[in-house]
Amino acid sequence: MNYELRNLYHDLIDEQQGFQKADPADIQYLLDEINADPQLGQAERAFLRGYLNYHFREVMQPLDREAEFRTAVALASDDHQSNLHLGYETFDVGKYATALTQFQKINLTLHFLWSQIKIRELIVSCHLHLQQFEAAESLLFPLLQLSAEVKDDDYAYPTELLRALAQWHVEFRTAIGEPAWQRLIELLSLVKKKHDLNSVFKDELSQIIQDAPTAPPGFSD
C-alpha cells in the first residue's frame, strides 16, 4: 500500500472539512483525482472513496461506503485506517458485531488520548447494543474512571456511549446488579461534572438515572 500518497489525499480531504460549507465541485474534483491517479492501488482508492463520502455524503452521489471499506480491508487486512473506518461505518448503521470486530483490531497507541477514549467508548457501546453486559461492565468502569480524570482537551463528547446506556439501562442494571449500578452512577456523575455533560446530554442522563432510588449529589444539576 502506498501510504505516503494515501495520506496525502487523506490530508486533502481533511482540509475540505475545515471549510464552513463544502463546495460540491471541489469534492467531485477530489473524487476524480482519486479515481484517476495511477499511483493509487485498489486498496488505497477504495479507502479514499469511502473516506471522502463518509465526510461529504451530503454533496456527493450515493456510495456504498461499507463496500469500499470492506474492499480496502480485504486487500490490506492490517491497515489501521481501513479497519477503523469500516468500524465507524458499520456502527453508524447498527451492525454492531462487525463494528466491534473492527474496533478490537485497532492499535490504540497510534491515537491521541481523546481518540483512544472514543474508540473504547464505541467498543463498550457495541457490547451494550449486543447485550453483552458482562463485557460492557468490565470495560466501562476503568473507562469512566479515566474519563473523569482527563482534561477537556483530551475528551470528546460520549454521544454514542450515553445513547447506548440510555437505551439499555434497565437491562444493564439488572445484569450487573445494584451495587455495581450505583458505582456506575457515581463514576458517571464525576464525568458529567468534569466535562459539563448535562448541558448537552440532559435527556440521556435523565433516562439513565430515572429509576435510581437516590442519585449522587449534583448529578442532575
Write a brief structural summary.
This protein has 221 residues and is mainly alpha-helical. It has eleven helices and no strands.
Can you walk through the features of this model?
The chain has helices at 3-17, 24-36, 42-56, 65-75, 80-92, 96-103, 113-129, 133-149, 159-176, 178-195, 198-209. By secondary structure, the chain is mainly alpha-helical. It is elongated.
What's the arrangement of secondary structure elements?
Blueprint: H1 3-17, H2 24-36, H3 42-56, H4 65-75, H5 80-92, H6 96-103, H7 113-129, H8 133-149, H9 159-176, H10 178-195, H11 198-209
Helix pairs in contact: 1-2, 1-3, 2-3, 3-4, 3-5, 4-5, 5-6, 6-7, 7-8, 7-9, 8-10, 9-10, 9-11
The overall average pLDDT, rounded, is 93
Q: Please tally the helical runs, counting DSSP H or I stretches of 4 or more residues.
A: 11
SS elements, strand count: 0
Unreliable runs: none
The radius of gyration over CA amounts to 20 Å
Strand content: under 5%
Residues in helix, %: over 70%
Order of helices and strands: HHHHHHHHHHH
> Structural class, please?
mainly alpha
State the distance separating the first and last CA atoms: 51 Å
Which word captures the global form?
Answer: elongated
